[in-house]
Specification:
CATH topology of the largest domain: Dehydroquinate synthase-like, alpha domain
CATH superfamily of the largest domain: Dehydroquinate synthase-like - alpha domain
Oligomer: single chain
Distance between the termini: 33 Å
Largest sheet: 6 strands, parallel
Number of strands: 8
Helix content: 40-55%
CATH class of the largest domain: Mainly Alpha
Number of helices: 13
Low-confidence stretches: none
Mean pLDDT: 93
Strand order of the largest sheet: 1-8-5-4-2-3
Structural class: alpha/beta
C-alpha cells in the first residue's frame, strides 16, 4: 500500500540532449529576455562568448567571475551590472560555482535566467542559495533562485577531465542515495532516485575509461539530472560534506565523493529499505562498501587527507558539523561524528 506523502516540484523547464546548446537564443526569446549577460568562470569563458555571439538579437556581455567560490564581490558585481544595464534576464554557464552565484543573483533581483549546465553537480535544481564567507556570508531558500530553463547538452561535458567528472558524478550520487532515506521522500522520488543510482553507477566507470564516449556522458548527465530534480531531505552525508568543505576550503565535489560511502555505511541498519535499493541499483551486497569500491574503481581519492584536510582538524570538524541541525535516519552523536570524520579522513573501507 502506498503511504501518504507530499510532493512539490517547482519544475524548471529542461532541455536535455546533444545540441541543445543551440536552443539558447530561442529560450531567451521564449522568456522574453532581450538584454542579458553571462556569468561564467574562466573555464566557461570561451563557451560563453560563443553563446553571446549566437544570440545577436539580445545584447549580451560576458561577466567572468573574479574570485574562487561564490564570493560577495562577484555577487555585488553581477547585481550592480544588472541594474546598470537594465538587464531583464541572464545566462549562467558551468557547474556549481557559477550556477550557485546565478541562484543568489536571481533570488535577489528576481530576474529569470538560463542555466547551461556543464558538470554533474545538480545545484541548478535546488532552490537554496548562498554567497560570501564569514561576516559577508548570506544564504536563503527561494523558488526565484531556480532557472527558467536548464539546458543539459552532453557534448559540453566532453572537456571535463575524467577525475573531475567522476567526483562530480559521485556528488550527484550523494543526492540520490540520501534521497532514498529522506524524511520527506515519496514513492516517485524513491523510484527516480534509485534510477539515478543505477545510471550513475553504470556510466561513471565508462566515462573514466573513455572520456570521449558521448553515450556514457549522456547516461551520466541523465543520472545527474534525475538525482538533482527528484530529491528528498538530505542527512548526515550532506551535513558533513558541506560543512567540512566550507570550513577547510576543500573541493566541493571531491568532499562529497569521499564522504558518501561512510554516511551510507553508518545508516545501514537504520534505513534498510534504502540500502536494498542502493544495492539493487549497483548490483552489490553492501551499499556502503559498494559505493566505496566504486570510488576506488573510478580512481578518485577515498580520504579527506587526500583533499588537503589535516588529521588535527577532525575534532574541530566534528564540532562544526555538530552545531548544525539536520535530519538523519540514525541519531548522530558527537562521538559518531568524530568516528565518521576520522574514517573519512583516513580513506580505508568504511566499517560501522
Amino acid at each position: 500500500m502506498i503511504e501518504n506523502f507530499l510532493f512539490q516540484s517547482p519544475a524548471p523547464r529542461v532541455l536535455f540532449g546533444c545540441g541543445t546548446i543551440n536552443a539558447v537564443a530561442a529560450e531567451l526569446a521564449l522568456h522574453k529576455i532581450t538584454r542579458a549577460f553571462v556569468l561564467c568562470t574562466g573555464s566557461g569563458a570561451e563557451l560563453s562568448r560563443r553563446i553571446a555571439a549566437a544570440s545577436p538579437g539580445c545584447d549580451i556581455e560576458v561577466l567572468r567571475l573574479a574570485n574562487a567560490g561564490i564570493s560577495a564581490e562577484d555577487f555585488e558585481r553581477a547585481t550592480q551590472h544588472a541594474k546598470k544595464t537594465g538587464a531583464n534576464g541572464f545566462i549562467t554557464v558551468g557547474g556549481g560555482t557559477p550556477i550557485g552565484l546565478a541562484k543568489a543573483v536571481a533570488a535577489s533581483t528576481r530576474l529569470p535566467y538560463l542555466a547551461v549546465v556543464t558538470t554533474y553537480s545538480g545545484s541548478e535544481m535546488a532552490s537554496n542559495w548562498s554567497y560570501g564567507k564569514g561576516k559577508d556570508a548570506r544564504n536563503g531558500n527561494s523558488l526565484a533562485a531556480l532557472p527558467a530553463t536548464a539546458l543539459y547538452d552532453p557534448d559540453l561535458t566532453l572537456s571535463l577531465p575524467a577525475k573531475i567528472s567522476a567526483q562530480s558524478g559521485m556528488n550527484a550520487m550523494a543526492h540520490a542515495v540520501e534521497s532514498l532515506y529522506g524524511a520527506d521522500r515519496s514513492p516517485a522520488v524513491e523510484m527516480l532516485a534509485e534510477c539515478a543510482v543505477r545510471q550513475l553507477g553504470a556510466s561513471l566507470p565508462r566515462v573514466v575509461a573513455r572520456p570521449d564516449d558521448i553515450d556514457a556522458r549522456t547516461d551520466a548527465f541523465y543520472g545527474a539530472w534525475l538525482a538533482a530534480a527528484f530529491r528528498a531531505q538530505v542527512g548526515v552525508e550532506h551535513a558533513i560534506a558541506q560543512k567540512v568543505r566550507q570550513r577547510f576550503g576543500l573541493s566541493h565535489a571531491g568532499t562529497h565523493s569521499v564522504v558518501v560511502p561512510y554516511a551510507i555505511a553508518f545508516n545501514r541498519d537504520a534505513a534498510k529499505g534504502a540500502m536494498e535499493k542502493i544495492e539493487r541499483a549497483l548490483g552489490v551486497k553492501d551499499a556502503g562498501l559498494g559505493l566505496y569500491d566504486l570510488n576506488v574503481r573510478l580512481g578518485i581519492p577515498t580520504g579527506l587527507k587526500n583533499l588537503g584536510m589535516k588529521e588535527t582538524d577532525i575534532e574541530a570538524a566534528a564540532d562544526f558539523v555538530g552545531a548544525t541541525a539536520f535530519a538523519n535516519p540514525r541519531p548522530v552523536s558527537r562521538a559518531d561524528l568524530v568516528e565518521l570524520i576520522t574514517q573519512t579522513f583516513h580513506g580505508a573501507a568504511p566499517h560501522f
